[in-house]
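Now read these lines:
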Amino acid sequence: MRSSGRNSGSGSGRSGGNRNPRGAGAGRDGKQEQRPRRPRPEERRYDVGADGERSGDGPRKGRGAAARGGAKGGPKAAQGGGGRSGDQRRRGAPSRPRELDAKIEQRNRDRYANKPEIRTPKTHPGAEQEGERLQKVLARAGMGSRRACEELIDQARVEVNGEIVVEQGMRVDVHKDEIKVDGLTVAAQSYLFFALNKPAGVVSSMEDPDGRQCLGDYVTNRETRLFHVGRLDTETEGVILLTNHGELAHRLTHPKYGVKKTYLAAIQGPLPRDLGKRLKDGIQLEDGYARADHFRVVENTGKNYLVEVTLHEGRKHIVRRMLAEAGFPVERLVRTSFGPIPLGDQKSGWLRRLTNTEVGMLMREVGL
């Protein structure tokens, strides 16, 4: 009897002292009590009421209405219950009355919508007519900046249709008016002028059906169609002009205007003293006489001679034919100038754009 009582008492004591790992225990009344289970992270709720405290999971201080906005300094609830509730914030209610927004919008409309039109003063009578300002045309033609072109006008160096311009702001029509600076015509339109040092073996044409190297290979990246001024033999080197100004190209090659071309020819000597006189007097060719305007010996090394020949004619192979008829076949021929445009130190195969001064000299050469 004692052993049974001791065992029962000790058993009940051990059972009462042990904790139930599941949170269940025996109360004083002998009934099981269920402890509140902590919610899992995905089950927790973070709703914040108007008083800035968490609901459902106990109070959490330090996170008020400003935290719900996602940034510091967000809208806070007004004292005395005047602030918006969490439901109102979630609905995105405006922070200011609509009447205030309407007033701001009307004020901006009145400030900018009825702004008076500003009219710039006219620089001269007829400024509303068509055309471009003269200084702008000169600047586009390469005469310098607009300020520099205005100084050219102030210095009375600019002419329009034969009259010197004495005031700023004059408007011109680049398609009708003739513009000159220091007596040289300005290419005011979108014309292009190039000088190419043609290498030997290049055909003097923009395209070649046989696939040989031609002048067009040097201007393939140009949007405007260009054409060559005159021709050079395939084996002749030197300066050749490319442009899209049809009238200028026509006059430069017409015998009427007599534009001179200068050549350097390598021949074998000895040369007679009267060779220059014979060339100037005229050499009888198959298609008539051919006369040189100038002749001189540039260099002499033994039997090798380098002579300079200037003429204004442009017949085919004329320099080679004249010297061959005189008894001195040409071994190498280079054109060193075309009118006022010199070859200079331009390398073989290089293309350069003519300056506005050079274009003006070309136009004066042919009366443009």
